[in-house]
Each structure stands twice: as structure tokens, then as C-alpha cells.
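Milestone M4 deliverable, item 7.
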Amino acid sequence: MKKSPSRPKLKLRYKTISRDQIDQVRPLWEALNRYHTKRSIHFSKFFETFTFEQRLKKYKSRSVTVRIDLALVSGSGGKGAKERAVGVCLSSYDGRKEGRLDTIYVEPRFRGLGIGSAMMKRALKWFDASGVKGRSVSVLFGNEDVFPFYSRFGFYPMRYTMLTKGKVTNRPAKNKR
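Output delivered:
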């Protein structure tokens, strides 16, 4: 029987960063955006042109409360081994205490190690401690294979939002009640 190559020993830790440190998220968010460009059935052009700076507008705004968690790994290189971010979870809630998991991403080679689940649990615990009432996550059409992951945490699809091609903003317009 052929022996599979073992992964090098990695040290993993989680760190919450401030809104002012959000630039640390850039490489992971850009990787997620490239992934969405490939997965999007109808809106890949939108993701091709959607920049990190455009995405930051929401997080620079003080109208939402934000939590940014990073999953950091360092190799078994001993003392002085450089740490790098391999996962990110951005969560937010508004003044009505409506919570949103805005981004959760783990680099492909680090998936299956429980990093996404650990970050999800941290976000949900933060929502609980903050008195957040509702919680939502948006999943890109064409990326439905993530549904089982989210359903483990009580998230289920409710509706599809249909958009016209052309001018697409990063958020669908809210219905006025």
C-alpha cells in the first residue's frame, strides 16, 4: 500500500484584528474573488472587476459593527518561523442587530482541517455575545456545494435573488416595507 505524503507540522492560531488592520485580509479576499469569478455562472465579469477597495467601503463605514478573524499558520521551522494568514472570516451586524457572515474563506490546501468550522463558531459566539437576533449568509449561485457546511451551523437556503446583467452593485437593493 502506497503511503500518502504527510503534511508538515503546522502551528495554527486564530486572531481577531481591528477594522484598521483590514488590509491584512487582501490576499485572501482576492483569492476568494478569483474563486467566485470562476464559479459564477452569470456574473463572472462583475467579480473580475470587483476590487478590494470597493469591498472595503462597507467595513470602513461605522454604520456596521465588524469582526475580522484570521486563521494563521506557521511551519515547523522552529523559532522565527514566519506566520501567515490562510483563512478569514468577516462578520458584521447593523443597528437592528441583524448579523451577516460576509466572508468565510480558507485556502484550498488548508481545507478539511476544521479551520472554517472554527472560524464559523467564533463568529456565531460573537453574534450571541453581541445580542444579534437574525443571521444570514449569501452564497454565490453556482457555489451550492457549500450548503452542507453552512447547514451544519443552522443556515439553510430560503430564496434566490435574481439580478439583471449589466450594472451590478455589490448588494441587491433592499425592499422597502
